[in-house]
Amino acid sequence: MEFLRGPTVAQKYEGSVVEAVRAAVRGAVQMLHNQSLVHGDIRTPNIMIVDGAGRR
């Protein structure tokens, strides 16, 4: 997996935005688990956001 440089979600955004991202990630992870798929290292510092142009 490639390393992405840049701020984490918690460094770039505040409060309700961070919580909304966490909720979205939780939902996505639940969908993965429902399909018997597992990701081993999902935590706040590993959540990166891409801009609208698809750049990371």
From TrEMBL:
InterPro entries: Kinase-like_dom_sf, Prot_kinase_dom. It comes from the Eukaryota. PROSITE patterns: PROTEIN_KINASE_DOM (PS50011). Residues 1-56 form the Protein kinase domain. GO terms for molecular function: ATP binding; protein kinase activity. This is Protein kinase domain-containing protein. It comes from Armillaria ostoyae (Armillaria root rot fungus).
